[in-house]
Amino acid sequence: MKYIAIMGLGTIGRGVYDLLKENRREIAERLGEEIFVKRILDLRDFPEEEIQRLVTHDVADIIEDPEISVVVETMGGVEPAFSFEIKALNAGKHVCTSNKELVENKGPELFAAARENKVNFFFEASVGGGIPIIRALTGSLTAERVGRVSGILNGTTNYILSSMTNEGGTYEEALNKAMQLGYAERNPAADVEGFDAGRKLAILASIITGRRVCFGEISTEGITGITREDIRYSKELGYSIKLIAEASFEDGAVTALVAPRMVRPESALHPINGVQNGIVVCGNMVGKVLFSGEGAGAYATASAVSADVIEALRRCTETVYSGWSSEKADIRDVSGSRYRYFVRAVGYNQEDYDNALSIFGGGSIINAHIQAEFGLVTPEMTEEEFHKKSGELIGFIKSIRIK
Ligand code: HSE
Fold first, then answer.
1. pTM for this structure?
2. Any idea which fold 2-129+299-314 has?
3. What CATH number should be reported for the domain whose range is 133-294?
4. Cα 205 to middle of ligand 1, angstroms
5. Ligand 1 nearest-atom number relative to CA 197
6. What is the pLDDT of residues 47-96, one digit of tens each?
7. How remote is the CA of residue 262 from the centroid of ligand 1, in Å?
8. Which residues are catalytic?
9. Which of 159, 175, 187, 396 lies in the 20 to 30 Å Cα band around 194?
10. Distance from the CA of 282 to the center of ligand 1, in angstroms?
11. Ligand 1, closest atom to CA 154?
12. Following DSSP, what letter does each residue of 308-362 receive, concatenated?
């Protein structure tokens, strides 16, 4: 019999508790032992529920309990989660977490504490919810030289954009629904401003390079500026608008960007809708590998956390991941990156279209039947070139990079 503790009984923590009960028989068969939740740390009490008997408000009840061998941290945020996890690792307990903010901020310290104490620190659920991407990068794809990783890494924004596109819903309606479904962060600004996807991209890029990629150094744009008009143009083109997190790796440097993109139907990410996440890893030997599945929500995320718990118990005599070092990766800014761009501009007639086409050196005009404006898809050029040219276009409204 193995005992674990859960720190934080929010959406994910409760999902882990429920999953371990629901799948108890299968898990016991696979592990050879039953797993029991012995303690739950939360600020609140749950007097109407049977779990109340497990609830503690004092972390020492977990840290000082020698029977508890794995701690699940699903509190979120950096503190006090970091201090609690360090205490748990130093007490010889394995730690499994879905806390991407913490992993991105404090990964190297946590990996070092796990190594020193000969325990495991697992964080599969920190990226892509239920999608097994961390273990794939550190395991099955570990022989690859990865040139690029592109993904839809935030379920909330994908849900909002899909709903605005396919059901014609408003941004506010879709965001409220995503919050009700437990997809969004406590402060959904982290989702819609692209910060959550940026943190997840930083984790993936850190695993790939073995060095620390800081979220703060990643150019990040959110989806708050996406309008119904943009969606009308994307439909006209047969494209879809998605928040894409992408990093490329060349000559030891990382170029990373999180931004809404118009995604062409040929892209493997085009059919990824709703709360689904999709991640394409391009390796030099294996080619392109696509991972997809539910990227947010209680049970998908709890599935990844619970698998980490089982893995920690199976590998209890060795430290499996080394994660990445505290040395910072070399980050290149995106000014040299090349894209095609979708542009919206004020204009009425062929003269306006011709002027725009000549500024961008060609491209194609799109008419979404919006009064007094037109759209244009530019040829491929660098960000730097695009900013110069778009500055010359009188009537420029906005642009969205194409994927
Ligand atoms: N708010 C996150 C999302 C939760 O929507 O993807 C999963 O990390």
1. 0.97
2. Rossmann fold (3.40.50)
3. 3.30.360.10
4. 18
5. 6
6. 999 999 999 999 999 999 999 999 999 999 999 999 999 999 999 999 99
7. 21
8. 200
9. 396
10. 23
11. 6
12. HHHHHHHTTTS-------SSBPEEE-GGG-EEEEEEEEE--SHHHHHHHHHHHTS
